Amino acid sequence: MAIVASLEKTKPEPGISLLMSLVDDDMARVNQLILDMAGANAEMIPEIARHLIDSGGKRLRPMLTLASAGLFGYAGEGHVKLAASVEFMHTATLLHDDVVDESEMRRGKLSARMLWGNQASVLVGDYLLGQAFRKMVEVGSLDALSVLSTAASVIAEGEVMQLAAAKDLATDEARYLRVIDAKTAALFAAACEVGPIIAEAGDEARRAMARYGTSLGLAFQLVDDALDYGGSSQALGKRVGDDFREGKITLPVVLAYRAGSELERGFWQRTIEKATIADGDLERAVELLHRHGALAETAARARHYGEAAVAALDELPDGDHRQALIEVVEFCVSRVH
Amino acid sequence: MAIVASLEKTKPEPGISLLMSLVDDDMARVNQLILDMAGANAEMIPEIARHLIDSGGKRLRPMLTLASAGLFGYAGEGHVKLAASVEFMHTATLLHDDVVDESEMRRGKLSARMLWGNQASVLVGDYLLGQAFRKMVEVGSLDALSVLSTAASVIAEGEVMQLAAAKDLATDEARYLRVIDAKTAALFAAACEVGPIIAEAGDEARRAMARYGTSLGLAFQLVDDALDYGGSSQALGKRVGDDFREGKITLPVVLAYRAGSELERGFWQRTIEKATIADGDLERAVELLHRHGALAETAARARHYGEAAVAALDELPDGDHRQALIEVVEFCVSRVH
C-alpha cells in the first residue's frame, strides 16, 4: 500500500488551516444557521440533523462557498445562507446515499439509517433539501439558484448513473469519470461558483471558480476511492472495503480489471459482479490493485485534477483567499481524514 | 358503507370537465414539458418517470396552477413551467412515499419500487425534485420560489410527522390535521398560490388562493382516508386497507378508537399498535368504523373543508375559471377515482 501509505504520512490537514482561519467568523454563523434550519415540528428531524451535524464532518463545501465569496470581496450576508444551503444539500445526499448503499457507518459513527431507520433517513433527507432551497431563495440571486438547483438535479443523476454502473465491469474510465463528475464534483463546482455570483465578479470569475470546484471535486473523489482500498477505517470514517462489498465500480477496479489476467478477471467477476465475497477476498483485491499499480495510478489522476484546480485560480485576485484555495487542493489530494 | 357508497354513486368526475376544457391547451404543453424534464443521461430516470407519467394520475395539482393563473388573466409562459414543477414535486413525493410505506401498488399498477427497487426510487425522486427546482427558477419569480420551496420543506416535515404518529393511538384529531395539512394541503395551497403571484394579482388574491388550496387539500386527504376503508381498489388505485395494514393513524381510526369500548380499543391496539393482523381484521375494522359513524363523520369533515374552499373564492373574479375551481371541490369531495 505504498502510495496511499505515503499520502497518509503527510502531516495532518496540511492546507486547511489558512482556509479555516479566513472563514472562521462566518463559519460560526453558518453553524448557527444550520442548527436553526434543522429545527422542525417533528422531533425526529432535529435529532437526526444533530446526529449528522455533530459527527465532525469537515464542512469543506460551505467553507469553499465562504472563501469563494471572500476572494472577490463580497461584503453582504448571502454567502452565509448559501454556505448553509450547500451543506444541507450535501447532508441530504449522505442520508439518501446511506439508504441506497445500506451503509452501517458514516464518519466513524453508526449511520442515521441504523439508528432511525431507512424511512426516516429518506424523509429527513427530503426535509433538509427543502430547507436548503428555502434558505437559498432568501438570498434573492436567480443565478445562484440556477447553479444550485442544477447541481441538485445533476447529483441525483450521478447517483442513478452509479447505481446503473454497479456490478458492471464493462464500466470504463470515461463512464466512471462521468459518474463522479455528477455525483461529487457538481456540488464542489456549485459551492465555488455561487461566491463570484453573489459578489458580482463577472462571468470570467464564475467560470474559473466552477472549473476550480469541478477539478477539486474530481480529485477529492479519486482519493476517496483509492482510500477505500488502502486507507484506515479511521481515516475514511467508514469501513475499508465498503465499495468492494457493494460492488461499486471505482477507478482502481476499472484499471486493475482491464490490466488483469483471465484468472484475475474471474476473481473480479465473482466478487464484484456476482457479489459472492469470501474471507480474504478484500485482501486479494488490494493485492491485485497493487500488482497493477491501480492505486498509484488513481492517486496520479487525483494529482492531475488537483493541478488543474490550482491552474484555474491563475487569473484570480492574489492574496490569502486564493492561497487558502490552493492549499485546500493539497489537503484533498493528500487527505488522511 | 352507506356514506362512502353514496359518495361513489355520484356521476363520474362531476366537476373536473370545465377545468379540463379551460386548461386543455396549456396542459398539453405541461405534459410535453414533463416528458422533456424527465430526460437524463441515466436511462433508468426516463423509464421510471414514464412509468409514473403514463399511470394515469389526474394531474389535478398542475391543472390548479394553470387555472389559478388564468383566473387572474395571466398571459405569460411561467404558469406552464410552474405547473410542471408542481407535478414533479408531487411525483417525487409519491416515489419516496412508496419506499417509506413499502407500497406494492400505485394508481392501479405495480409501484416503481416493486419494478426498479427502493434504491432507484429514492434517487429518481431526488432527481425529479431537483428538476422541479431548476424549472421553477427559470420562471424568475422569487415569491413563487419561496412558496414552492417552503412547500417542499413542509411536505417532508408532514411525512416525518406521519411516520412519528404511525401506530400511535394517542394521536388526536388536531395532530392528524397537522399531518395532513403539511403532507397534502401544503402542495395544493402552493399550486394555487403561485397563479396569482405570477399574475401579480396582489396579496389579497394570494391569500385567498392559498386558503382555497389548503381547504381543498384537507378535503381531498380526508376523502382519501375514508376511501381506504370504504372504497374499491379500483377507485383508490391501491389496495383497500393499506393504511390499516401500515398502522397509519387516519381520522376514521382516531374517531372510532375514541368512541370505542374497552374491547374495541383492544382490537385497535393489537392491529394498529402491535401490527398483528389476522384474516377478517380489516372487515372487523370497517364494521367498527361504521358502528361509530367514523366514515360518515370523516366525510362530513371533508364537506366542511370543501365549503371553506368555495368560500375562499367569494371575492375573486367571477367567470369560468372560478366556476371550474368551485366544481373541483365537488369533484374532490365526491371523488370516485
From TrEMBL, chains A, B:
GO MF term (any one): metal ion binding
Keyword flag Flavoprotein: no
Regions annotated as coiled coil: none
Keyword Metal-binding assigned: yes
Record GO biological process: isoprenoid biosynthetic process
Pfam families: polyprenyl_synt
Keywords linked to the UniProt accession: Magnesium, Metal-binding, Transferase
Needed cofactors: Mg(2+)
Stated family: Belongs to the FPP/GGPP synthase family.
Protein name, per record: Polyprenyl synthetase family protein
Species name: Methylobrevis albus
